[in-house]
Write a structure and sequence with these properties.
The complex is a heterodimer of chains A (about 150) and B (about 120).
Chain A (H helix, E strand, L loop, with lengths): L2 H19 L4 E2 L3 E2 L9 E9 L3 E7 L1 H12 L6 H23 L3 E3 L3 E4 L14 E7 L2 E9 L1
Antiparallel strand pairs in A: 1-7, 2-7, 3-4, 3-5, 3-6, 4-8, 7-8
Helix pairs in contact in A: 1-3, 2-3
Chain B lengths: L1 E5 L3 H11 L5 E6 L2 H11 L3 E4 L8 H11 L4 E6 L4 H9 L4 E4 L4 H13 L1
Parallel strand pairs in B: 1-2, 1-3, 3-4, 4-5
The chains are: A alpha+beta (about 150), B alpha/beta (about 120).
Chain lengths: ~150, ~120
Protein backbone atom coordinates (compact mmCIF):
# COMPACT_ATOMS: atom_id res chain seq x y z
CA UNK A 1 0.00 0.00 0.00
CA UNK A 2 1.13 3.51 -0.73
CA UNK A 3 1.57 5.99 2.09
CA UNK A 4 -1.45 8.04 0.97
CA UNK A 5 -3.54 4.88 1.04
CA UNK A 6 -2.52 4.21 4.63
CA UNK A 7 -3.58 7.79 5.35
CA UNK A 8 -7.09 6.93 4.12
CA UNK A 9 -7.42 4.38 6.91
CA UNK A 10 -5.83 6.68 9.49
CA UNK A 11 -8.25 9.50 8.65
CA UNK A 12 -11.16 7.06 8.47
CA UNK A 13 -10.41 5.64 11.92
CA UNK A 14 -9.96 9.04 13.56
CA UNK A 15 -13.15 10.28 11.95
CA UNK A 16 -15.13 7.17 12.97
CA UNK A 17 -14.37 7.51 16.68
CA UNK A 18 -14.93 11.25 16.68
CA UNK A 19 -18.28 11.06 14.86
CA UNK A 20 -19.64 8.11 16.81
CA UNK A 21 -18.39 8.87 20.31
CA UNK A 22 -17.45 12.56 20.22
CA UNK A 23 -13.99 11.58 21.46
CA UNK A 24 -11.03 11.55 19.09
CA UNK A 25 -8.86 8.49 18.69
CA UNK A 26 -5.12 8.92 18.41
CA UNK A 27 -3.10 6.70 16.14
CA UNK A 28 0.50 5.74 16.80
CA UNK A 29 3.01 5.34 14.00
CA UNK A 30 1.98 2.50 11.65
CA UNK A 31 4.32 -0.45 11.29
CA UNK A 32 4.64 -3.54 9.15
CA UNK A 33 3.25 -6.58 10.88
CA UNK A 34 5.56 -9.50 11.57
CA UNK A 35 4.58 -13.12 12.24
CA UNK A 36 3.20 -12.30 15.70
CA UNK A 37 -0.48 -12.92 16.37
CA UNK A 38 -2.29 -9.65 16.94
CA UNK A 39 -5.72 -10.50 18.28
CA UNK A 40 -7.38 -8.94 21.33
CA UNK A 41 -10.74 -9.89 22.88
CA UNK A 42 -12.89 -9.37 19.76
CA UNK A 43 -11.99 -8.92 16.09
CA UNK A 44 -13.98 -8.00 12.99
CA UNK A 45 -12.62 -8.90 9.55
CA UNK A 46 -13.67 -7.54 6.16
CA UNK A 47 -12.56 -9.16 2.90
CA UNK A 48 -11.72 -6.86 0.00
CA UNK A 49 -12.25 -7.72 -3.66
CA UNK A 50 -12.71 -5.88 -6.94
CA UNK A 51 -10.01 -3.38 -7.88
CA UNK A 52 -7.98 -4.38 -4.79
CA UNK A 53 -7.54 -7.71 -3.03
CA UNK A 54 -6.97 -8.68 0.57
CA UNK A 55 -8.66 -7.59 3.75
CA UNK A 56 -8.53 -5.75 7.01
CA UNK A 57 -9.50 -6.37 10.58
CA UNK A 58 -9.92 -4.35 13.72
CA UNK A 59 -9.23 -5.96 17.07
CA UNK A 60 -10.32 -4.43 20.40
CA UNK A 61 -10.49 -5.19 24.11
CA UNK A 62 -14.02 -5.90 25.35
CA UNK A 63 -14.23 -2.89 27.74
CA UNK A 64 -13.55 -0.57 24.80
CA UNK A 65 -16.39 -2.14 22.78
CA UNK A 66 -18.71 -1.89 25.77
CA UNK A 67 -17.85 1.79 26.11
CA UNK A 68 -18.54 2.52 22.41
CA UNK A 69 -21.76 0.49 22.51
CA UNK A 70 -23.00 2.45 25.53
CA UNK A 71 -22.40 5.69 23.64
CA UNK A 72 -24.24 4.50 20.53
CA UNK A 73 -27.20 2.94 22.28
CA UNK A 74 -27.40 5.64 24.97
CA UNK A 75 -27.70 2.99 27.66
CA UNK A 76 -25.68 1.52 30.51
CA UNK A 77 -26.80 -2.03 29.74
CA UNK A 78 -24.65 -3.80 27.17
CA UNK A 79 -25.17 -7.46 26.31
CA UNK A 80 -22.82 -9.98 24.67
CA UNK A 81 -24.55 -9.84 21.29
CA UNK A 82 -24.18 -6.06 21.14
CA UNK A 83 -20.46 -6.23 21.91
CA UNK A 84 -20.08 -8.93 19.26
CA UNK A 85 -21.92 -6.86 16.66
CA UNK A 86 -20.11 -3.66 17.58
CA UNK A 87 -16.73 -4.89 16.36
CA UNK A 88 -18.28 -5.92 13.03
CA UNK A 89 -19.92 -2.55 12.59
CA UNK A 90 -16.66 -0.68 13.23
CA UNK A 91 -14.84 -2.82 10.66
CA UNK A 92 -17.69 -2.42 8.16
CA UNK A 93 -17.83 1.35 8.52
CA UNK A 94 -14.07 1.96 8.27
CA UNK A 95 -13.77 -0.36 5.24
CA UNK A 96 -16.92 1.00 3.58
CA UNK A 97 -15.89 4.61 4.05
CA UNK A 98 -12.52 3.82 2.40
CA UNK A 99 -14.41 3.20 -0.85
CA UNK A 100 -14.78 6.97 -1.21
CA UNK A 101 -11.00 7.09 -1.79
CA UNK A 102 -10.39 3.69 -3.43
CA UNK A 103 -13.32 3.90 -5.87
CA UNK A 104 -16.60 2.08 -6.38
CA UNK A 105 -14.82 -1.11 -7.52
CA UNK A 106 -13.42 -1.47 -4.00
CA UNK A 107 -15.81 -4.14 -2.78
CA UNK A 108 -16.20 -5.11 0.84
CA UNK A 109 -17.59 -8.32 2.30
CA UNK A 110 -19.96 -8.58 5.20
CA UNK A 111 -17.97 -8.69 8.44
CA UNK A 112 -16.71 -11.91 9.99
CA UNK A 113 -16.54 -11.56 13.73
CA UNK A 114 -14.61 -13.69 16.15
CA UNK A 115 -13.81 -13.77 19.82
CA UNK A 116 -10.32 -14.34 21.20
CA UNK A 117 -7.78 -16.32 19.22
CA UNK A 118 -9.50 -19.08 17.25
CA UNK A 119 -7.19 -21.84 15.98
CA UNK A 120 -9.06 -22.70 12.83
CA UNK A 121 -9.90 -19.29 11.43
CA UNK A 122 -7.96 -17.97 8.45
CA UNK A 123 -7.76 -14.18 8.19
CA UNK A 124 -7.43 -13.14 4.56
CA UNK A 125 -4.83 -10.40 4.21
CA UNK A 126 -2.28 -9.61 1.50
CA UNK A 127 1.30 -8.75 2.46
CA UNK A 128 2.79 -6.42 3.43
CA UNK A 129 0.36 -6.05 6.29
CA UNK A 130 0.27 -2.67 8.01
CA UNK A 131 -0.70 -2.24 11.67
CA UNK A 132 -2.29 1.01 12.82
CA UNK A 133 -2.24 1.20 16.64
CA UNK A 134 -5.33 3.03 17.94
CA UNK A 135 -5.58 4.76 21.31
CA UNK A 136 -9.05 5.77 22.45
CA UNK A 137 -9.86 6.79 26.01
CA UNK A 138 -6.83 4.89 27.27
CA UNK A 139 -7.78 1.69 25.45
CA UNK A 140 -5.41 0.15 22.91
CA UNK A 141 -6.80 -1.42 19.74
CA UNK A 142 -5.37 -2.22 16.32
CA UNK A 143 -6.50 -1.78 12.74
CA UNK A 144 -4.61 -4.31 10.61
CA UNK A 145 -4.70 -3.75 6.84
CA UNK A 146 -3.36 -6.09 4.18
CA UNK A 147 -4.40 -4.99 0.69
CA UNK A 148 -2.34 -5.41 -2.45
CA UNK B 1 -46.25 6.27 9.90
CA UNK B 2 -45.07 2.64 9.68
CA UNK B 3 -41.28 2.15 9.67
CA UNK B 4 -39.17 -0.94 8.93
CA UNK B 5 -35.44 -1.08 9.75
CA UNK B 6 -33.09 -3.27 7.69
CA UNK B 7 -29.45 -3.71 8.71
CA UNK B 8 -27.32 -6.80 9.30
CA UNK B 9 -25.93 -5.26 12.49
CA UNK B 10 -28.16 -5.57 15.53
CA UNK B 11 -26.39 -2.55 17.01
CA UNK B 12 -27.42 -0.42 14.06
CA UNK B 13 -30.99 -1.73 14.16
CA UNK B 14 -31.25 -0.89 17.86
CA UNK B 15 -29.63 2.55 17.35
CA UNK B 16 -31.92 3.50 14.46
CA UNK B 17 -34.95 2.30 16.40
CA UNK B 18 -33.90 4.33 19.42
CA UNK B 19 -33.07 7.50 17.45
CA UNK B 20 -36.24 7.46 15.33
CA UNK B 21 -38.81 6.30 17.82
CA UNK B 22 -41.18 9.13 18.55
CA UNK B 23 -44.58 10.55 18.06
CA UNK B 24 -46.40 9.03 15.16
CA UNK B 25 -43.76 6.44 14.23
CA UNK B 26 -44.60 2.76 14.58
CA UNK B 27 -41.73 0.31 14.09
CA UNK B 28 -43.43 -2.56 12.28
CA UNK B 29 -40.38 -4.76 11.93
CA UNK B 30 -36.62 -5.12 11.72
CA UNK B 31 -34.63 -7.42 9.42
CA UNK B 32 -30.99 -8.53 9.29
CA UNK B 33 -30.72 -9.33 5.58
CA UNK B 34 -32.40 -8.50 2.30
CA UNK B 35 -34.37 -11.74 1.93
CA UNK B 36 -35.82 -11.49 5.41
CA UNK B 37 -36.63 -7.82 4.70
CA UNK B 38 -38.66 -8.67 1.59
CA UNK B 39 -40.70 -11.26 3.46
CA UNK B 40 -41.35 -8.94 6.37
CA UNK B 41 -42.17 -6.10 4.00
CA UNK B 42 -44.90 -8.16 2.29
CA UNK B 43 -46.55 -8.76 5.66
CA UNK B 44 -46.24 -5.27 7.14
CA UNK B 45 -46.22 -2.90 4.11
CA UNK B 46 -44.43 -0.05 5.87
CA UNK B 47 -44.48 3.56 4.65
CA UNK B 48 -40.76 4.12 5.21
CA UNK B 49 -37.77 1.75 5.24
CA UNK B 50 -34.20 2.40 6.37
CA UNK B 51 -32.02 0.07 4.33
CA UNK B 52 -28.37 -0.94 4.68
CA UNK B 53 -26.48 -2.05 1.53
CA UNK B 54 -23.82 -4.56 2.60
CA UNK B 55 -25.80 -7.49 3.94
CA UNK B 56 -25.77 -11.29 3.59
CA UNK B 57 -28.26 -13.24 1.43
CA UNK B 58 -29.53 -10.28 -0.59
CA UNK B 59 -27.79 -6.89 -0.59
CA UNK B 60 -29.60 -3.62 -0.03
CA UNK B 61 -29.69 -2.49 -3.65
CA UNK B 62 -31.32 -5.75 -4.80
CA UNK B 63 -33.66 -5.55 -1.85
CA UNK B 64 -34.59 -1.99 -2.80
CA UNK B 65 -35.73 -3.17 -6.24
CA UNK B 66 -37.86 -5.92 -4.69
CA UNK B 67 -39.49 -3.58 -2.20
CA UNK B 68 -40.41 -1.10 -4.93
CA UNK B 69 -42.01 -3.89 -6.98
CA UNK B 70 -44.25 -4.70 -4.02
CA UNK B 71 -45.08 -1.12 -3.02
CA UNK B 72 -43.88 1.51 -5.53
CA UNK B 73 -44.61 4.48 -3.26
CA UNK B 74 -42.59 3.20 -0.28
CA UNK B 75 -40.03 5.75 0.89
CA UNK B 76 -36.66 4.04 1.20
CA UNK B 77 -33.78 5.76 2.97
CA UNK B 78 -30.49 3.97 2.30
CA UNK B 79 -28.13 4.08 5.29
CA UNK B 80 -24.72 2.68 4.39
CA UNK B 81 -21.01 2.80 5.12
CA UNK B 82 -20.51 2.79 1.33
CA UNK B 83 -20.87 6.52 1.10
CA UNK B 84 -19.04 7.14 -2.17
CA UNK B 85 -20.86 9.20 -4.77
CA UNK B 86 -21.29 6.35 -7.26
CA UNK B 87 -23.04 4.14 -4.69
CA UNK B 88 -25.29 6.96 -3.52
CA UNK B 89 -26.25 7.80 -7.11
CA UNK B 90 -26.95 4.16 -7.90
CA UNK B 91 -29.26 3.89 -4.90
CA UNK B 92 -31.12 7.06 -5.85
CA UNK B 93 -31.37 5.92 -9.48
CA UNK B 94 -32.92 2.64 -8.34
CA UNK B 95 -35.58 4.57 -6.45
CA UNK B 96 -34.27 5.36 -2.96
CA UNK B 97 -35.59 8.69 -1.68
CA UNK B 98 -32.53 9.51 0.39
CA UNK B 99 -28.99 8.35 1.15
CA UNK B 100 -27.23 8.69 4.50
CA UNK B 101 -23.63 7.64 5.08
CA UNK B 102 -22.50 5.79 8.19
CA UNK B 103 -21.50 6.62 10.79
CA UNK B 104 -24.49 8.77 11.64
CA UNK B 105 -25.52 10.66 14.73
CA UNK B 106 -28.98 10.73 16.34
CA UNK B 107 -29.39 14.22 14.89
CA UNK B 108 -28.23 13.42 11.35
CA UNK B 109 -30.49 10.37 10.95
CA UNK B 110 -33.48 12.18 12.46
CA UNK B 111 -32.97 15.09 10.07
CA UNK B 112 -32.62 12.79 7.04
CA UNK B 113 -35.67 10.81 8.13
CA UNK B 114 -37.81 13.92 8.61
CA UNK B 115 -36.86 15.10 5.12
CA UNK B 116 -37.85 11.76 3.59
CA UNK B 117 -41.18 11.77 5.39
CA UNK B 118 -41.91 15.37 4.39
CA UNK B 119 -40.94 14.74 0.77
Amino acid sequence: MKEEEIQVFIRGTISYFEEVTGIKAELDIPYTKGPEQLLLDYSGHIGISGNRKGGLYITCPRPMLEDITRKILLTDEVDDQSVFDMIGEIANTIAGNARTSFGSEFNISVPTIFKGKPNNFRIVLRTPVVVLPINWKGYQAYLVVGID
Amino acid sequence: MKLMIVDDSSIMRKAIEKYLTGAGIEIVGTAGDGKQAVELFKQTLPDVVTLDITMPEMDGLQCLEELLKIKPDVKVMVVSALKDEATALEALKKGARSFLGKPFTPESIKEAFDQVVAD
